[in-house]
Every structure is written in C-alpha cells, then in structure tokens.
Amino acid sequence: MYAVFLMEKSNSSRFKQAVDFLYSRINLERDTSSVDRNEYKLDGMRFLLERFGNPQLDFKVIHIAGSKAKGSTAALTASVLTAAGGSTGLYTSPHVSSIQERIAVNGRPIDREVFADLCFHLKDKIERIPLSAFPESKNPTFFELMTLLAWLAFRRARCEYVVLETGLGGRLDATNIVNPAAAVLTPIELEHQAILGDSLEKIAAEKCGIIKQGVPVFCARQPEAVKRVIREQAEAKNASVLFLDDELSNLQVVERIDRTDFRFTLKGGAENHFTLGLAGAFQAENAALAFVTLRTLYPGIPGQAYRKGFASAFLPARMEVVCKAPLVIVDGAHTPGSVSRAMASFTGLAGREGILLFAAVKGKNIDEMAAVLAPYFLRIIVSTPGSFRRSEPGRVYEAFRRYNKNVYLEPDPRRALHKALALSGGVLPVLAVGSLYFAAELRAHYAQSAH
After folding, report:
1. How far apart, in whole angstroms, are the C-alpha atoms of residue 271 and residue 294?
2. Quick one: pLDDT at residue 6?
3. Entry pTM
4. Of 87-101, 185-199, 424-438, where does mean pLDDT reach its minimum?
C-alpha cells in the first residue's frame, strides 16, 4: 500500500513538473492586450514539427475556426467519429479544469503519465537545440508546445482522425500547419480586434486562413459580410463552400435541463432526429454543422454513430448544470453573440426570474454584453474570472448598472457565487457567464463541495 502511495505521489509530482515547464514559456492566452500582431508567425511551429518528424501529416484532420461554438462543434464531430469506430484525437483550448482536457483520444482526456512522458520527451529534445537555431532565436511559446504535444499524443495513440480547434484566429494560429480533409467555420463576430483586425471582414479573413487549396469548407450561419469574405477566400483556393443555412430547413428544438432534442431536414434529404448530451438550443446548429461536414466527407458513417456520438459528447462549461437545487448553470460564453445564445437558452429553461453571475477578462466587448444580458435578470453580481487573466470589474459593474440598478460587485469569484446563492434563496435559478476562466473557478467550488 505504501509503495502504491509513493508511486502515485511520484506520478503527480512528475505531471506537475511537466505542467510547470509548459507554463514557464510565454503564454499569449494569459494576456493578449500588449501583443504585437507581428509576434504571431508560423515559422517557429513549422521548425518544431519538422524536428519531430511532422506528426501532423499522419492523420485525417478536420480543422475548425470561428469566434464561438468551435469547441462544441469540435467535440460533437470527434464524438461521432469515435462512435463510428475510428480512433479519434481532439485538440481544444483553453481548458476549464485541467490542462489534460485540451488533448483527448476517443473521448477521454490524455492520461497524466502519458502527458508527462511526452512533455519530458519534447523538453529534452528542445533543450538540446541551440536557441540560435530557432527562427528569430525565439523560444517556443506555451501554445506551440501544447500543439506539438497534442500531435505527439495522437501519433502515440495511432489515431486515424484528428479534430483540431484553432486557438486564436486561424491564418497564423499554431494549428495551421496541416493538410486537412475539411475546414469548418463556426459563427464569426468581432473579437480580439487588436490582433485580428478592427472590422468583421478583417477578422473573417484571418479565420479563413485555415482554408486550403481544394479542401472543402463547411460554414455555420454567418453575417452576409462574413459570407462574402468566405466565398472570396474559398474561390481563391479553388475550394467548395457549403453554408449550413443554405442546406438546413425545418429545425425544431426541444430544450431540457440535461439534454437537447432536435429535428432538422437537409436539402434533398429525409428528416433527422437526434438527442444531444449538451444542453442549449444553440447546440442543435453546432450538431447540424458537424452532421453536414461528416456526411459529406464520410458518407458511410451509419446513423447509429451519429445518435451515439451526439448523445455522449461532452465539453465542460457549455450550459453545464453544476447544481440542481437551486439550478446553477455555468457557460463559458464571452462574446455578445454567445452570451445572447446562452441567455436565451437559460431563460427558455428557467424563466426570466433569475440571478446573473458575470465576469470577463480585459478586452472583451463588455458594453454590448451588458446591454444583451442586464434587462433579463432580477439581480446581477459582477465578479472577476480569477487571477489568470486581467480584468476590470469596476468598469464591468458600471456597464451593467446602465441597464439594471440591481447590480452588486464582488471581485472574489467564490464569494460572488455565495452571494448569488443567498439572493436566490434556494429557489431562483442562477446563470454564470462571461469567461471560461470564471466557469473554471465555479466548477472547482462545486467539485470540492462534492468531496
């Protein structure tokens, strides 16, 4: 028994050392406010992949970019491929509760021991390379190393398919050194304007950077300005484009607390009926986009694989119920469009008599999110998304006060949750949105309470 304890403690320590090594590198996820757009280049990632034998070329890849819903769409797509019998890797970011979430094989996050083994393998090899040999003599960033680690994990697991979510943008994202079977574009809206551009068209052009020569493109509903950019970019690459709203008709959704039932018809096809393990009406369109993509690429996938894959797909902090009495739902929505969809699902399930918990990192479109959310809730508690990313809770508080006078400021996320529960009186439902980092803080509270 003592020997087992020592081994587990050793494994835990080794995993922590691996994570510490990754976090010791420049982490642009932590703060993008002062980043020069010119710092985003693919030379360093290309150099790393070549040194490790270009593992990204070993798989059938579905590459996904967008402003919102790309994580859910990726998870749904990967889950169906797994259910169809294909060994499937899934790479998403950021993580919510554990860094292992970013790399999954057949629906399971990478094992801690495997994570540590691969991390020390790449650490040893990278540290043997002189700094002067790296492009512009720059060390690899956190996200570049995580992306490399994912490719090595998928190669070790002998995956056939990989569903790959971009981190930020697309054209210069570290994931964009790949020859995909398809490019998928989820809804695009204004975000990260200092890095991606100051207009919807410029941001769309960056996202469209994942489009490759002759590779089919599958798109969610988009504003007309975005559609024009997508068409232009696809035409330049001789790539076919399928827009979901041109194919989809008669979408009917029934929302429940723990699942989503939906029906839809595609052009020239029969009606399809599925149940999602993910709650939220908006997930139905994400699943429809995954369905259209996979049906086109791999028409031999049976209906049972879609039913099983959609029902079993899971991604934390996507309309996730963390408590039922009172009802507490956390969602990582952090753009005006995504918080609007989360709020619509929440009020459809629980009514308008609810409590809002909100926290967002610096640089987000706070004013528009406040305008969308504030009128729909009886009480609002503004907090911070923890200490990982900078935030401006005072400014957020003032933005929400313009639309609702019943706003409270509590910077500590867990105290903010306790205040929300007190205001709920054990009856009123609570929605927490604004940041995946905020969702992680609240999920951690409930995870600890369960032990």
Report:
1. 17
2. 30
3. 0.91
4. 185-199
**Structure-token pair, residue 339:** 């918080």
Instruction: For the chain, give every domain's residue range.
Output: 2-312, 320-449
CATH ID of 2-312, from 3.40.50.10740, 3.40.1190.10, 3.20.20.80, 3.90.1150.10:
3.40.1190.10
Is the distance from CB of 377 to CB of 356 less than 8 angstroms? yes
Q: What is the pLDDT of residue 2?
A: 31
pLDDT of 312 strictly over 80: yes
Query: What CATH superfamily classification does 320-449 receive?
Result: Mur ligase, C-terminal domain (3.90.190.20)
Give the amino acid at 160. E
Compute the C-alpha angle 442/335/435, nearest 5°.
20
What residues does 329 pair with on adjacent strands?
321, 431
CA pair distance 377, 121, nearest whole angstrom: 51
Report whether pLDDT(4) > 70.
Answer: no
- List all residues 6 or more positions away from 105 whose beta carbon is below 8 Å from its beta carbon: 87, 88, 89, 90, 153, 154, 157, 159
277 alpha carbon, distance to own chain's centre? 17
Q: Which residues contact 451 (CB under 8 A, 6 or more apart)?
A: none
Q: Please give the torsion angle defined by the CA atoms of residues 300, 302, 305 and 310, in that order, rounded to the nearest 10 degrees.
A: 90
Are 386 and 441 contacting, i.e. CB atoms less than 8 angstroms apart? yes
Residue identified by tokens 């956190």 is 142
Residues 6 or more apart whose CB falls under 8 angstroms from that of 375 comprise: 403, 404
Contact criterion met (CB below 8 Å) for 103 and 150: yes
Helices within 222-335 (DSSP H only): 224-236, 244-247, 282-297, 303-312
Residue type for 99, please? Answer: I
